[in-house]
Amino acid sequence: MNARTESQYLQTLSNQHLDALEEETIFILREVAASFERPALLFSGGKDSLVLLQCAEKAFGRGRIPYPLLMIDTGHNFAEVTEFRDFRAQELGAELIVRSVEDSMKRGTVRLAHPGESRNVHQSVTLLEAIEEFRFDALIGGARRDEEKARAKERIFSHRDSFGQWQPKDQRPELWTLFNTRLQPGEHFRVFPISNWTELDVWQYIAREHVALPSLYYAHARQVVERRGLLVPVTDLTPAREGETVETRRVRFRTVGDITCTCPVESPAATAAEVVIETISANVSERGATRMDDKTSDASMEKRKKDGYF
After folding, report:
1. What CATH number has the domain bearing residue 65?
2. 240 shares a domain with 142
3. What whole-number distance in Å separates Cα of residue 215 and Cα of residue 278?
4. Are 22 and 160 in a shared domain?
5. Cys staple from 258: which of 120, 140, 210, 284, with CB 3.0 to 4.6 Å?
């Protein structure tokens, strides 16, 4: 087999793999539409939710997605992401519902320990309030099992009790893509159609399908400081501390969340194809390399799942 033939063979295998993942995701998205009365798709404007939305468009068609998009806004999101979120929802003709942690703070259901505290962990409260307000019985999310050890345990159809909490012993078997979607009053499901995708799969799909993303997913110049092994972006919310050296580096974001806990990585990758090449050689997960909140036990993913988020 010559080099050209080998390259074509590997590309065929890659496409077959992505086709299988896409087919599974579309099947799950349609299963949710058929099984629940009031589902919603969690949409942050990040790369995973945009891939999920691309599959939803294929599953139902533009302007025909049968459930609203729901965003839980901390008020500390990158402007590039929220602007792209609004653009994509309008482009698809999809209903976009935004509920804010700041509104929960005004109601007194969220109280910060100090003004500079990350609001990321408090999304749980706002999310549960939105579920109660709209009586959602299923929420579709873009989480993947390879992201973090707590997510590796997760079912595709994740049962939540009447308090919105995840209980490990109450999760149901999922054999032969048969899903038990029965609910008691007040309960709901979190559904993760791209559970079996990896970060590499996501970027290969983005490259193949030409999925548009917010610009900060690609290399750009940004002021940062080094802190606890991470590159912290210098912003009004995350200023440099005394003694820290501010540098301008060429970086990109592997994952995007609240400004107060999301860090970029140094990178020259300016296209999806270049990100694919970088991802192949990455030896640290995207959350492990970029999320400050995952490094503290109080904000760990396991705790957040049991509190009602994720």
Report:
1. 3.40.50.620
2. no
3. 17
4. yes
5. 120
Cα–Cα dist 140/157, whole Å: 9
The burial of 160, by beta-carbon neighbours within 10 Å (0-12 exposed, 13-18 middle, 19 or more buried), is given as buried
Read off the pLDDT of residues 95-147 as tens digits, 9 standing for 90 and up: 999 999 999 999 999 998 887 778 888 899 999 999 999 999 999 999 898 87
> HSE (CB half, 13 Å, CA atoms) of 210?
0
- Could you count the other beta carbons within 10 Å of the beta carbon of residue 129? 18
pTM given for the model: 0.88
User: Is there a single domain that holds both residue 164 and residue 290?
Assistant: no
140, 41 in Cβ contact below 8 A?
yes
In 3D space, the residue among 35, 310, 32, 66 whose CA is nearest the CA of residue 182 turns out to be 35
- Alpha-helical regions (H) of 36-114: 47-60, 79-92, 101-107
The rounded distance, in Å, linking the Cα atoms of 142 and 190 is: 10
In sequence order, the β-bridge partners of residue 257 are none
Helices (H), the chain: 3-35, 47-60, 79-92, 101-107, 123-134, 149-152, 199-209, 272-281, 286-290, 301-307
pLDDT by residue (tens digit) across 195-247? Answer: 999 999 999 999 999 999 999 999 999 999 999 889 999 999 999 999 999 99
Residue 150: pLDDT over 90: no
